[in-house]
Structure to design on (299 residues):
């Protein structure tokens, strides 16, 4: 199998028919699609099964018991990908499957490359959301030793060796962009224009993204802990100086605020340890459905 296309789906029933048609038109035969139905409440599951039969292509559908998040879906799907190359693609038609053809060509021309990651030149997000994401990537780069490329999301194609490496990372809080960076893979960045989401709404509210961002930072950097300690030190100094001036109320408020801030940062890490030590799996599967084209020989 040359190519596995891994597609996490959360309530994407309206986008799937066009997506699958586009994929089948682009890739002909030697590919498989691995869909992960991430606890959709709509008809995603049945539509996927119907389309697998009507379009008769190599297809696997992994269904979660509930919504575990896109990163858990990608983790589960990777385990099922058998292709020489693996592509991560969203279900909402924002990413044109034809770009995958360019990504594979780049990997074939450059044997030293491990991965091609698409970078959005035109974004289909509000100005405010773009700024929030820019701030996040700025913070990530400042706080961790890894280098995150702005605009590079999950839309990427890589060799199966990268898949094996990512699967060997067993943590349950999976910030995939961080795992890809941490792996030290040789990456080529390919600019592309994201299209408008065809149907439905983005699944990422501001607060869900904030949650994700905090998880990303605390999974890949311990520097906030050091900054918290520095705050404490600075405050001790300020308290010593204030003995001569006495801005008492200001000091009490500030000290309370900073202590809370430091406790909050510590709390984030402790929460991460708490989640990991429970050793729960990152996802639970309800069902795995497989469809093979009728004319394909089973080896
Ligand atoms: N997705 C998912 N689980 C989630 C949220 C999203 O599997 O909990 C899928 C979603 O169906 C889509 C992809 O992840 O295929 C990207 O989601 P979305 O388009 O909402 O993200 P955005 O493009 O707004 O960043
Ligand atoms: Mg989208």
């Amino acid at each position: 199998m040359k190519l596995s296309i891994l597609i996490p789906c959360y309530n994407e029933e309206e986008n799937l028919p066009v997506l699958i048609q586009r994929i089948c038109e682009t890739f002909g035969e030697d590919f498989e699609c691995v869909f992960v139905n991430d606890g959709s409440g709509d008809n995603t599951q049945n539509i996927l099964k119907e389309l697998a039969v009507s379009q008769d292509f190599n297809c696997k559908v992994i269904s979660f018991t509930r919504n575990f998040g896109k990163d858990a879906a990608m983790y589960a799907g990777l385990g099922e990908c058998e292709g020489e190359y693996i592509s991560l693609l969203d279900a909402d038609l924002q990413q044109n499957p034809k770009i995958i053809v360019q990504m594979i060509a780049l990997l074939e021309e450059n044997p030293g490359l491990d991965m091609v990651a698409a970078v959005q030149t035109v974004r289909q997000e509000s100005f405010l959301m773009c700024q929030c994401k820019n701030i996040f990537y700025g913070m990530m780069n400042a706080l961790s030793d890894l280098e995150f490329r702005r605009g590079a999301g999950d839309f990427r194609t890589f060799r199966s060796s990268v898949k094996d490496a990512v699967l060997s990372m067993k943590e349950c809080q999976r910030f995939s962009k961080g795992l890809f960076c941490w792996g030290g893979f040789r990456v080529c960045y390919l600019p592309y224009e994201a299209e408008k989401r065809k149907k439905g709404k983005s699944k990422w509210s501001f607060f869900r993204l904030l949650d994700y961002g905090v998880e990303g930072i605390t999974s890949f950097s311990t520097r906030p802990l050091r900054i918290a300690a520095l705050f404490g030190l600075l405050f001790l100094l300020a308290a010593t100086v204030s003995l001569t001036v006495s801005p008492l109320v200001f000091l009490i408020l500030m000290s309370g605020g900073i202590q809370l801030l430091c406790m909050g940062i510590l709390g984030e890490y402790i929460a991460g340890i708490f989640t990991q030590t429970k050793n729960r799996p990152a996802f639970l599967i309800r069902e795995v459905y497989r469809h093979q084209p009728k004319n394909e020989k089973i080896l």
Observations:
- The CA atoms of residues 123 and 161 lie 30 Å apart.
- Residues 248-277 form the longest helix (30 residues).
